[in-house]
């Protein structure tokens, strides 16, 4: 069993060679629900500028909580698209006021929360092409959206549309084999199907549908930006092996949907130069290129500098696992997306709802509320827990869908309780075995050289990380992921820009 735990230093790893032609890359990381962030890096990947706008406090006129509106049915969750536009005005104005020199920016990219959708009204593309630099974007674009409330990733109101999609394509597993995921309520195709059914008039008046990421890129580009393969994989519409829209999924969702979506493109594509509006209003250089924007999770993978074979485990309120995989096997649980760094490869994302909160409950019940006592229990019990294991789903788990506490002793007999220390180890080993099992089901293999990158609140606990290392039989490195999506977008801006220059 491996027992190495060291620190992974974010800015000293590989990748410097592809950024030498860039003097500043800017990433604009949009809307991880509650805010808009910007980050600029120099040619050495050092962060030279950072700022952000919080939607609730900076834009109170939109009356959001955490950047969203929760509707009375408690399933529908939306954000005002004009709030997102206005946040960009505010952020760029702030940068201008503090003297940020936009003329040094060679390339920009960004990321947005996955799955959310933006509906551009007929005629909006003409408006985007000819924006008056003396006016704010939110003023210029106030009539450019057919739907003002954009469905976001927290929406879970499309159960009917999900069932219809799965029935049409031949079942949940078939849909996962095509699109990388079974039908999820928040995935954009199901949201589009609901929009078409419930708001037919507005839908008819729509000339283009963007993801949050491609919407933000469109603002900078002054024209509709392509959806990139990686964020496009979170829609239940993209065939992740051919990287084209799946005909059967499109047909099950809305007529002529391919025209509304445009052609998907590789995540490293340079989409074009920044529009004249930004050159005249903020002083961007004419040669500044806009690299395709992507989803926040793919951008985080780039920001963490995951490499083939690596696995990242975020131990926050819930646990999230990211993987770089070469030969995915989409399954009933988890998501496979096209990879944002190397578009021929893949990444996977697994979400586990019962993470730190369940560890906290067991800490309170078996360790007197002390992480120190909890850690001592891990140190004082043997690897494998003498065959005792448990699955602790305090609330309905996402991966796998299940609820309740299930304990098994060394004879695989279900038992109703364990002693305190055994309970602590059964919980932590059970959680990490489940993370490994579901990763392997999606095609992940632990090979010599595999690194486990751990982040989030519980990654400060060395004894928890020791169990993680033992279960994955691999060294664990800790990593600070604050800003990983933003940083990843800045790296991608450089990467995309340099890739084109080298060709
Ligand atoms: P979020 O997902 O909200 O960003 P964090 O990454 O900040 O959350 O993680 C918060 C969680 O970290 C808390 O719920 C807490 O249970 C856990 N945590 C904090 N310190 C420790 C520790 N020493 N050992 C285990 N878990 C810890
Ligand atoms: C991933 C997901 C969220 C959003 C918002 O599938 O729904 O992580 O990307 O951050």
From TrEMBL:
<comment type="function">
    <text>Phosphorylates D-xylulose to produce D-xylulose 5-phosphate, a molecule that may play an important role in the regulation of glucose metabolism and lipogenesis.</text>
</comment>
<feature type="signal peptide">
    <location>
        <begin position="1"/>
        <end position="19"/>
    </location>
</feature>
<keyword id="KW-0418">Kinase</keyword>
<dbReference type="GO" id="GO:0005829">
    <property type="term" value="C:cytosol"/>
</dbReference>
<dbReference type="GO" id="GO:0042732">
    <property type="term" value="P:D-xylose metabolic process"/>
</dbReference>
<dbReference type="GO" id="GO:0005524">
    <property type="term" value="F:ATP binding"/>
</dbReference>
<keyword id="KW-0119">Carbohydrate metabolism</keyword>
<keyword id="KW-0808">Transferase</keyword>
<dbReference type="InterPro" id="IPR043129">
    <property type="entry name" value="ATPase_NBD"/>
</dbReference>
<dbReference type="InterPro" id="IPR018485">
    <property type="entry name" value="FGGY_C"/>
</dbReference>
<keyword id="KW-0732">Signal</keyword>
<keyword id="KW-0067">ATP-binding</keyword>
<dbReference type="InterPro" id="IPR018484">
    <property type="entry name" value="FGGY_N"/>
</dbReference>
<dbReference type="Pfam" id="PF00370">
    <property type="entry name" value="FGGY_N"/>
</dbReference>
<protein>
    <recommendedName>
        <fullName>Xylulose kinase</fullName>
        <ecNumber>2.7.1.17</ecNumber>
    </recommendedName>
</protein>
<dbReference type="GO" id="GO:0005997">
    <property type="term" value="P:xylulose metabolic process"/>
</dbReference>
<dbReference type="GO" id="GO:0004856">
    <property type="term" value="F:D-xylulokinase activity"/>
</dbReference>
<keyword id="KW-0859">Xylose metabolism</keyword>
<comment type="similarity">
    <text>Belongs to the FGGY kinase family.</text>
</comment>
<dbReference type="Pfam" id="PF02782">
    <property type="entry name" value="FGGY_C"/>
</dbReference>
<dbReference type="InterPro" id="IPR042024">
    <property type="entry name" value="D-XK_euk"/>
</dbReference>
<feature type="domain" description="Carbohydrate kinase FGGY C-terminal">
    <location>
        <begin position="312"/>
        <end position="495"/>
    </location>
</feature>
<feature type="domain" description="Carbohydrate kinase FGGY N-terminal">
    <location>
        <begin position="152"/>
        <end position="303"/>
    </location>
</feature>
<keyword id="KW-0547">Nucleotide-binding</keyword>
């Amino acid at each position: 069993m491996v027992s190495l735990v060291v620190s992974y230093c974010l800015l000293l790893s590989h990748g410097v060679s592809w950024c030498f032609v860039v003097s500043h890359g800017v990433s604009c990381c949009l809307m991880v629900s509650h805010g808009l962030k910007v980050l600029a890096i120099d040619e050495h990947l050092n962060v030279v500028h950072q700022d952000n706008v919080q939607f609730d406090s900076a834009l109170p006129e939109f009356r959001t909580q955490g950047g969203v509106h929760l509707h009375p049915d408690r399933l529908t969750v939306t954000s005002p698209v004009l709030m997102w536009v206005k946040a960009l005005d505010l952020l760029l104005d702030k940068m201008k006021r503090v003297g940020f020199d936009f003329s040094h920016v060679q390339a920009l990219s960004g990321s947005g929360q996955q799955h959310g959708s933006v509906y551009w009204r007929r005629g909006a593309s003409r408006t985007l092409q000819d924006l008056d630099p003396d006016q704010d974007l939110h003023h210029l674009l106030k009539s450019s959206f057919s739907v003002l409330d954009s469905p976001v990733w927290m929406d879970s109101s499309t159960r009917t549309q999900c069932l219809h999609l799965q029935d049409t394509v031949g079942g949940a597993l078939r849909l996962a084999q095509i699109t990388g995921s079974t039908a999820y309520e928040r995935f954009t195709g199901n949201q589009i199907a609901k929009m078409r059914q419930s708001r037919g008039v507005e839908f008819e008046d729509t000339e283009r549908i963007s993801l949050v990421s491609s919407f933000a890129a469109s603002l900078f580009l002054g024209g509709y930006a392509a959806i990139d393969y990686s964020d496009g994989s979170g829609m239940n519409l993209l065939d992740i092996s051919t990287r084209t829209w799946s005909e059967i999924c499109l047909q099950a969702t809305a007529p002529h949907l391919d025209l509304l979506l445009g052609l998907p493109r590789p995540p490293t594509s340079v989409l074009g130069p920044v529009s004249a509006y930004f050159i005249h209003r903020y002083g961007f250089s004419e040669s500044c290129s806009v690299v395709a924007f992507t989803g926040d999770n793919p951008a985080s993978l780039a920001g963490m500098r995951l490499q083939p074979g690596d696995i990242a485990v975020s131990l926050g309120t819930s646990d999230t696992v990211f993987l770089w995989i070469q030969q995915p096997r989409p399954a009933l649980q988890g998501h496979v997306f096209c990879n944002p760094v190397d578009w021929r490869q893949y990444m996977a994302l697994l979400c586990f709802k019962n993470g730190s909160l369940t560890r906290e409950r067991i800490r309170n019940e078996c360790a007197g509320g002390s992480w120190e006592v909890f850690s001592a229990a891990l140190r004082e019990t043997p690897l494998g827990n003498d065959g005792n294991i448990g699955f602790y789903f305090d609330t309905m788990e996402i991966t796998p869908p299940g609820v309740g506490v299930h304990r098994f002793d060394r004879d695989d007999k279900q038992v109703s309780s364990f002693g305190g220390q055994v309970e602590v180890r059964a919980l932590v080993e059970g959680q990490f075995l489940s993370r490994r099992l579901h990763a392997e089901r999606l095609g992940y293999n632990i090979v010599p050289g595999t690194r486990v990158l751990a982040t989030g609140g519980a990654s400060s606990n060395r004894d928890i990380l020791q169990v993680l290392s033992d279960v994955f039989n691999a060294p664990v490195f800790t990593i600070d992921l604050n800003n990983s999506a933003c940083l990843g977008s800045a790296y991608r801006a450089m990467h995309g820009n340099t890739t084109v220059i080298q060709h």
